[in-house]
Amino acid sequence: MPKHACATSEASSSPAFSLSRRRLLGATCTGALLLIGPLAPAWATPSETGLATFMELSRRLTGRDDLDARFGQRLHDTLVERDADFATRLGELRNGLDQTHTQELEGTTRNTAQQILSAWYLGMVGNDHRATLVGYPDALMFKAAGGVLKLRAFCFGMPGAWAGKPVFGRT
Question: Which of 52, 53, 49, 124 is nearest to 82 (CA)?
Fold first, then answer.
């Protein structure tokens, strides 16, 4: 008989399905993914879901898909900081926009839409003595002008020159 003889084909007593470490690890990972998969949206914090809603509504209201996410985060945080009910009103606005057109909004949903548009185009939140400047150079009012208007980094004339009556024509 040769030295390296093959094993005989006797009936083995081992089961047809053998549990190896690889199969056990694969089954464990698959089971964990199946259990955790449906819970994944619950991991998002309320501020993250509020920001996602804010950005979605901002895109719909402004008609622009190129909104800056960092600037949007700052606007959202400032709006929520100034108004505790803002997050709730975002949901109402979303429902209102799903049912009607922007021009047909009324009451608080219209006010919320105006707040969002004002914040994006002016770069500030609020229009009272407590208004918060979030980002003047990032405001959409400059992008709407298409690069024709330049941001002023200086004032013309002497300090206070704006207070005098303008002179028209030749002097």
Answer: 124
